[in-house]
Specification:
The structure is a homodimer. By secondary structure, the first copy, chain A, is an alpha+beta fold. In chain A, 30% of the residues lie in helices and 33% in strands. The first copy, chain A, has helices spanning 22-36, 48-55, 59-71, 100-106, 125-131, 162-165, 168-175, 178-184, 204-210, and strands spanning 75-78, 82-85, 90-94, 111-122, 138-148, 151-161, 191-201, 217-226, 232-241, 245-249. The radius of gyration of chain A is 22 Å and the shape is elongated. Chain B binds a DNA duplex through residues 4-7, 21-23, 47-49, 57-61, 63-64, 66, 77-83.
Chain lengths: 251, 251
Amino acid sequence: MLTKTPRGSSGKNHLLERGVMLWRCIADDFEQMIMIGKHDNGARLPAESEIATKYGVNRHTVRRAMAELAARGLVYTERGSGTYVKTDKLDYPIGQRTRFSEIVAAAGHEAEGRLQGHRLEPANEEVAQRLGLNVGDSVVRLEIVRASDRVPISVATTWLSAERYNDAGKIYRQARSITRTLDHYGVTGYRRKWTRISAAFTDAVDAGRLRLSVHRPILVVESLDVTAGGEPILTTRGRFAADRIALIVES
Amino acid sequence: MLTKTPRGSSGKNHLLERGVMLWRCIADDFEQMIMIGKHDNGARLPAESEIATKYGVNRHTVRRAMAELAARGLVYTERGSGTYVKTDKLDYPIGQRTRFSEIVAAAGHEAEGRLQGHRLEPANEEVAQRLGLNVGDSVVRLEIVRASDRVPISVATTWLSAERYNDAGKIYRQARSITRTLDHYGVTGYRRKWTRISAAFTDAVDAGRLRLSVHRPILVVESLDVTAGGEPILTTRGRFAADRIALIVES
DNA sequence: CCAAGTTGTCTAGTAGAATAGACAAGTGGG
DNA sequence: CCCACTTGTCTATTCTACTAGACAACTTGG
């Protein structure tokens, strides 16, 4: 008769985990298949209706799963055509002139920087040393999420001397770019002095901000930017979604 | 004003993952804390109302999370008193006389065996060799979930020769015990001939049956049971929740 | 251009998640 | 024993996940 589908009963939904929504299970299933390489980059996924019948699920539920995958940057959809796998990583060159907006724009994508929060705090040993300050000196701390085509690429914590850049937070909120924020202070030709790259896994907070699951790999990029004259301006600790970018170091 | 709490908005629920129910997130959070050792065995958890305010959540939601933890066998609750951590593992001795019901009963718990399914199938090379049959000979295959105090302990696949034990499935469904099923065939003094122990992680199917998350550790126990005279009776491939039992091998 | 196939959007209904509050039933300490 | 505290259970309400169906907007290949 098939009048009711009690959902938790039994049947074909072998991937249903208690307390996890159906669309999330389907999305995770596709993520795994894509990551394993079951779908090549650029390949078209089956039609939504086809996936729906395969999972024994309504098409709307599949659409939700696909929206999740798109938000994670794993696929993109074209109306009337289909949904396509997108696993190629954004090349992110690390050099003297390392500017997120420029790099993303050069790759033909739309760059975006959102300030999550800012505050004044005393410099710890690490930050003080990098910026040439004394421990405890006041510094501005910015938390910024950067995205390419609306897909989060990195979360970064940035510190600047509060003495010189006291209002950096407010200015960034308008400027939405570090380069334009520094323009405001008359700093134009800043350059990267050094970059330190390591790896880790997402914690709950960064996972949320990057729209990743917990325990996904991230590239940790610490750096120091200085003026043309070599004066320290800012130091950052960025966490990049390793599934979405590749750091390029020329030498 | 705080009239509405739109849930997804922001705020204190730092552990909320999109597509995962609140109670599940809380349960997972506690599981992790317990596994890490933040709560000793036998320790009392905070009162439900206290946990509720700490997470900024209704008490009912906490109760759901606690019910989940109880189902996973990580805690037990005592009305009027509190909820207590239970991380001690069931000692499961492997010897000549290895009977699930007896072992669990001896430890003061209630044993239970539920037949998930049974069918006839041709013996593969492995099974045929163990049972002294030819490849392709018909064998009875049973899928059994075993629990102690309603907490799933293991899932096991058992093969018996169909020639002699053709109706083992139907009989087990009544008897709910391998020992009593074999009694039915007049086999009384069977004994364990060998046991092979390895380790793996849960797949989606076993995770569901064992009420575990995927990628939790399991002990894989393969074995052969024989009659008092040494004739092969049955061979099994059991997957035991490594969080809930410890295998004891005397020598 | 047309037709088949695909994604996007809308409406509507059902079941379950989460909230809120109240009270019963049980425990434990003074 | 009594009282403070805890878990268990009930009712009611709101919001969302999921289902169902229909149609519009769009792409693609013949």
